[in-house]
């Protein structure tokens, strides 16, 4: 079963069972839900439109069909353990950060994770679609080489494009959505900080700027995974959540200048954390 088939299968079950779906329902948001690029999601959407589970209006927007007509699909395969993907992805990221772009030894890597080479190839194929690894015909898989300058370059472009997206939609921001994301960044009842990162994707998607969206679809998943790996200390989580709150509260008050200023600071604040992790990983490899 291909990746697009798996996505179509999962969405068909969710739609027919009236389970929750990303809001707003879009290619970008579904891609984030499955942690994949936009391409297999587009293919899955086309399949489900043909089957009647999704409908496309005159403007091209796609939404679940209220009638939810479910055609017979192949028997659903048992889902592979999600934690396996996380472990393989972290292994690949650490190789990238360590500057190791040598080809993986499939047999040894499969043994490391206690899986068959077929299962390993499944997850490596998914990670290749997200930009974590590269598959070279007749040679195998190798990690994406991450250079220290890449972090600065990505952050510069991300900051510019995300601010551009926010400026283009600030008069169309939905207060209810902002308040919902704000609540997701408030500490839990026991005082433990939590993060709701949806604010970034919200205005990127709302911008309807395909060039901005394409940049984040191509490069966002890989770098977001690196940032997440670097943000494990409770103090860092708390700081990021607080910055989210200030950004969202400023937007609700229509204080655009403050929102943009804190957003820039928030994006830049992640750089030293990654640099610290990068130095630690590379020192361990010496």
TrEMBL record:
<feature type="domain" description="GntR C-terminal">
    <location>
        <begin position="156"/>
        <end position="268"/>
    </location>
</feature>
<dbReference type="GO" id="GO:0003700">
    <property type="term" value="F:DNA-binding transcription factor activity"/>
</dbReference>
<dbReference type="InterPro" id="IPR036388">
    <property type="entry name" value="WH-like_DNA-bd_sf"/>
</dbReference>
<dbReference type="Pfam" id="PF07729">
    <property type="entry name" value="FCD"/>
</dbReference>
<keyword id="KW-0238">DNA-binding</keyword>
<keyword id="KW-0804">Transcription</keyword>
<dbReference type="GO" id="GO:0003677">
    <property type="term" value="F:DNA binding"/>
</dbReference>
<keyword id="KW-0805">Transcription regulation</keyword>
<feature type="domain" description="HTH gntR-type">
    <location>
        <begin position="87"/>
        <end position="142"/>
    </location>
</feature>
<dbReference type="InterPro" id="IPR008920">
    <property type="entry name" value="TF_FadR/GntR_C"/>
</dbReference>
<protein>
    <submittedName>
        <fullName>Transcriptional regulator, GntR family protein</fullName>
    </submittedName>
</protein>
<dbReference type="Pfam" id="PF00392">
    <property type="entry name" value="GntR"/>
</dbReference>
<dbReference type="InterPro" id="IPR000524">
    <property type="entry name" value="Tscrpt_reg_HTH_GntR"/>
</dbReference>
<dbReference type="InterPro" id="IPR011711">
    <property type="entry name" value="GntR_C"/>
</dbReference>
<dbReference type="InterPro" id="IPR036390">
    <property type="entry name" value="WH_DNA-bd_sf"/>
</dbReference>
